């Protein structure tokens, strides 16, 4: 996909962080915007900034971890603008905690938003793009956690690995179908966003219950560690431009933190040589 002007971008998690940056870059490229976020008012705030740049768009407050909401989002996008040319499946959360301590409801929450929302998006939008026949693109936001097994973040690692694999499968299936749809999977390391505020985006059906984990020292340590990783991450500037350049160049894997390359390669080498996972990998 090389022409963006006048075409429609649907961006989930557009109220903060990466999503807001993608929306601004789409606005710069004169796209029509459908911005979606669970946090009330946040997609509207991004849209206001985009409108100041001359963009046309709508903002929706939806929880995209629910299939019916994704269906509704897609219907509204088509009813409003007639096409969907770019889908950025970006909304996500990160909860950390050891596998035997983190409540299983946090696994279900993470699977629903980090993985299922992307599957719902592709399931709804790809048939529309196929029918359009024009060059289209889908970006699934995964993470470098989709290429390695970082300690303490089981659900995040699992869903991000799954996001990479569903993206790869989509790419292959679309090639076999000779479709005019490009796919990219974005796998950044830590970047300064609001990801450490994921707790505030917890849907009602996963609300904190009386599980003792939420008042434990382990929980406190997990929250502090994610705060530290995100606050000391790389600055977010130029992320929007970088992703749109990757779309133009039909780049599938978008890896932006070469510091992890040795870990990624080491993991594959260990698998091939039968070497066990080892904490010394992380230095
Ligand atoms: N920041 C990082 O270091 C980093 C690294 C790798 C990958 N990522 C990924 O980038 C993506 C964007 O995260 P970010 O870092 O910009 O964080 P962020 O918290 O700033 O943005 C995520 C947005 O998604 C929204 N969201 C959360 N749950 C939602 C739901 N159920 N429905 C709709 N919207 C929902 C949030 O309200 C928020 O606006 C995520 O998928 C995240 O896993 C982030």
Automatic annotation (TrEMBL):
Pfam families: adh_short
Species annotation: Enterococcus alishanensis
InterPro entries linked: SDR_fam
CDD domains in the record: SDR_c (cd05233)
High-level lineage: Bacteria, Bacillati, Bacillota, Bacilli, Lactobacillales
UniProt KW keywords: NADP, Oxidoreductase
Family: Belongs to the short-chain dehydrogenases/reductases (SDR) family.
Annotated protein name in UniProt: SDR family NAD(P)-dependent oxidoreductase
PANTHER family: DEHYDROGENASE_REDUCTASE SDR FAMILY PROTEIN 7-LIKE (PTHR43391:SF14), RETINOL DEHYDROGENASE-RELATED (PTHR43391)
Keyword NAD: no
Domain of life of the native organism: Bacteria
């Amino acid at each position: 996909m090389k022409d963006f002007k006048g075409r429609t971008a649907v961006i989930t998690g557009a109220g903060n962080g990466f999503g807001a940056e993608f929306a601004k870059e789409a606005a710069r490229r004169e796209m029509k915007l459908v911005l979606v976020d669970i946090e009330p008012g946040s997609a509207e705030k991004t849209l206001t900034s985009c409108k100041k740049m001359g963009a046309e768009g709508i903002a929706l407050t939806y929880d995209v971890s629910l299939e019916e909401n994704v269906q509704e989002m897609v219907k509204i996008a088509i009813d409003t603008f007639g096409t969907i040319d770019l889908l950025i499946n970006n909304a996500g959360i990160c909860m950390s905690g050891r596998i035997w301590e983190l409540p299983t409801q946090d696994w279900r929450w993470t699977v629903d938003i980090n993985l299922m929302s992307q599957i719902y998006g592709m399931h709804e939008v790809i048939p529309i793009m196929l029918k359009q026949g024009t060059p289209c693109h889908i970006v699934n936001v995964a993470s470098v956690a989709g290429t390695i097994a970082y300690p303490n973040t089981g659900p995040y690692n699992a869903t991000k690995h799954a996001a990479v694999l569903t993206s790869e499968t989509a790419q292959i299936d679309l090639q076999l179908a000779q479709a005019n749809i490009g796919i990219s999977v974005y796998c950044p390391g830590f970047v300064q966003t609001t990801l450490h505020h994921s707790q505030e985006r917890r849907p009602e059906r996963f609300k904190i219950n009386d599980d003792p984990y939420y008042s434990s020292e382990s929980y406190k340590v997990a929250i502090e560690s994610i705060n530290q990783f995100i606050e000391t991450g790389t600055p977010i500037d130029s992320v929007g431009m970088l992703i749109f350049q990757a779309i133009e160049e039909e780049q599938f894997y978008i890896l932006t933190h070469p510091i992890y390359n040795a870990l990624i390669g080491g993991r594959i080498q260990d698998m091939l040589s039968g070497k066990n996972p080892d904490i010394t990998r992380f230095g």
